[in-house]
Write a structure and sequence with these properties.
about 140 residues, mainly alpha, 2 domains, two-stranded parallel sheet, two-stranded antiparallel sheet, 5 helices, oxidoreductase, Aromatic-AA_hydroxylase_C
Length: about 140
Amino acid sequence: LRVYGAGLLSSVAELKHAVAASDKIKRFDPEVTVHEECIITAFQNHYYYTDSFQEATEKMRAFANTIQRPFGVRYNPYTQSVEVLTNAQKIAAIVSELRGDLCIVSNALRKIHEHDETVDVESIEKMLQSGLQLNHDEE
């Protein structure tokens, strides 16, 4: 069991309360959770779970994509901040950064493959290609 939270949930007392209150534990659904009151001075009314941190991340990304706004956002792990993407220059800077990262990944993959031919380069290439396909049907 891994528990992520802030404020009181990071305390032992609320963690014990959350685990003991099985009737207050619900499957994480951002569409529902967003309407829940966030209590900062007492224990929460409900707690939410997923099978993995990745599942929670994917659900949050999908939910964020439904929010109508005239800009995009991106988490920058280097600065540990959220960047607001409001113009083509900011997006071009991210594309340049991604190109650099992909060069690093490509070089590392090539070096690893030189020493270990069992590395499945094709599946990694397919994963990259499928990740780069943009879905314009949602617009």
